[in-house]
Each structure stands twice: as C-alpha cells, then as structure tokens.
Amino acid sequence: MAIEWILAFLALGCFAGVMAGLLGIGGGGIMVPLLTSIFLAQGIAPEAVVHLALGTSMATIVMTSLSSMRAHHARGGVIWPVVKAMAPGVIVGTFAATFVAARISSLYLAGFFALFMGYVAFTMLRAKTPTAGGKTAGNVELAAAGAGIGAVSALVSIGGGSLTVPYLSWRSIEIKKAIGTSAAVGLPISIAGTAGYLLNSQSGAELPLTVGLVYVPAVLLMSAASFICAPLGAKLAHKLPVATLKRLFGILLLLLSLKMLASLLAH
Fold this sequence. Notes:
- The protein is mostly helical.
- About 75% of the residues lie in helices and about 0% in strands.
- The chain contains 10 helices and 2 strands.
- The protein has a two-stranded antiparallel sheet with strand order 1-2.
- The chain is globular, with a radius of gyration of 17 Å.
C-alpha cells in the first residue's frame, strides 16, 4: 500500500476517534463517505465503493464499541437485561441487512445513507432531549426494536446510538442509562455487521487483503488510530463548547453524505 493511503487511513481513524471521544458519536457517519472517496481514488469500481466502505467502517467500529461498552459498564451505566432482550433481534437484523446491502446499488445505498445522515443532522441541530413515553418495553418489543435498529445500522454502518438512545429514552429509561445501554448494544451490532460483510462480496471491490467487503489494512490502521485518539477527544470535551460542536458536526455529516452522493453520480 502506498504511503499516502496509509496516512489517509490513519488520519481518518484519528479524526473518527477524536469525534467519538468528544461528542460520543460513532465514526460511521464520517468513515463511510470519506472511505468512499479514498476507494474511488484507489480505482475501485463505483458500483462497489459504498459496499466496501460500509463493510470496512463496520469492522473498524468493533474496537470502538468494545471500548465504549467497557467504559459505560465501569460507571454502572448499562442496563444488561435490556441489552440481553435486544441482542437476538439486533444480531439477526444486522446480519440479514448486510445481505440486503450487498444486493443494492451503490447509488441507492448512498441515497439512503444521505437521508439517514440528514435525520441525524436534524436531531443534532434540534438538540432536544428525547421525551419519555410513559411505560417500559417488554422483551418481545425490545427484540423487535433491536431487529429494526440493527437493520438500519447495517445499511449505514453505525453502532446504532442515534436510534437506540431515543428509543430507550422514549421507553422511560433515564438518558445516561440509555446512552450506556446503547453503547453495549453497539457491540453485537458491529460484530454481526462485520460477520455479514465478511461473508458478502461485490464485483469490482478487489483490493489486496480484502475479505468479502472488508478491506483489512484500512481496518487495522483506522482501529489503531481511533483507539489512540479517542481519549484526546474525551479530554477536549471538558474544554470545548460541545453543544455548538455537535451542531457543526451534524452539518458536516450531511455535507459529507451529499458529497458522496455527488461523487457517485459523477461516475
């Protein structure tokens, strides 16, 4: 791999790690559009770039999810019975959706990604705390919600926090516990999503050391960089105006998504 690509993957991992530590936001919204640009520049076929970006991003999220889950568990912020109830649905929904993603064109995937990031940007700009729905959810509902959250997460390569936190808050779980529980739910999402993307393939996504739809060198470089840089983001969170940065980050996510869509249309 040329040195410029090594540096690009390291920089992307570092940026994603800092943002995760600073704003508590997973890196999929950043990694997918930027990986798409990198893969296009590396000569990957336009009809395969988004698939490869989704799979590579999802595999990178595994380490971040594990680290986040451990941190929230150490603070007593995870409601494990809720995680246990959601996990079967999450695993099935996420894993199955990777097979759907592999059969959708890059352009449609990019369009769905841009729409979803538009929703994420809107919630960040709105900056409103989710309201409680007045009753707790049963295990069947939690499993069904997990399946839906997992499916969407696989299609946009996220750990599910932007869906899980509002859902759990709506089901009368206190916001800090909702965030911690969501972080724990993110681990089975990332593992099941990675497994699914490893088992799928796409014509034109051939790079050395690619397994299925996961580009292994990028995963290793970005995982290492994000692991090292996440604590820096956490330190900056105590010194910077996080609420303002969150709004700006929401706009950035939307712009990156639209740029990805435009790049594919141009090809």
